[in-house]
Amino acid sequence: MNDIKKLIEEISSRKPKNYQQMKIEEVSKELHNTMEFEQNVLKKINSFENNHQDADLIKYAKMICRNVIERETSLIQETYLKKIDSQYLNSK
Predict the structure, then answer these.
(1) Suppose 26 and one of 6, 22, 31, 59 were both cysteines; which one would form an S-S bond, judging by CB atoms 3.0 to 4.6 Å apart?
(2) CB-count burial class (<10 Å; 0-12, 13-18, 19+) for 42
(3) Phi/psi zone of residue 15: left (φ > 0), alpha (ψ -120 to 50 degrees), beta?
(4) Would you say 47 and 62 are in contact if contact means Cβ atoms under 8 Å apart?
(5) 59 CB-side CA count, 13 A
(6) Rounded distance, CA 47 to CA 59, Å?
(7) Would you state the torsion angle of the CA atoms of residues 29, 35, 37, 42, taken in this order, to the nearest 10 degrees?
């Protein structure tokens, strides 16, 4: 149970970075890192499920993970698309 709580703290402590100030390559890398983080978290959650740990806490961890990752991914994608558009339009 403590492992699930630690995981929830780890997920909740993720704060979006200032993607606007990053280069496109850096934003792309951040998206990759976010997706990798999500995969690792989901593996841990599956492990907790397989060990029949507290089902309500696991549901909460999944919800927190989904919300945090969706928010972060959305910010990254929005910034990435704006940067692509501005560079593409400026190069024409």
Answers:
(1) 22
(2) middle
(3) beta
(4) no
(5) 3
(6) 13
(7) -170
Tell me what the pLDDT averaged over the chain comes to: 89
pTM recorded for the entire structure: 0.81
Three-state DSSP string of the chain: CHHHHHHHHHHHCCCCCCHHHCCHHHHHHHHHHHHHHHHHHHHHHHHHHHCCCCHHHHHHHHHHHHHHHHHHHHHHHHHHHHHHHHHHHHHC
Among 4-8, 49-53, 54-58, the least confident range:
49-53
Place of tokens 């929005």: 78
Burial (CB < 10 A; 0-12, 13-18, 19+), residue 22, is middle
Tell me the mean pLDDT in the region 47-55: 85
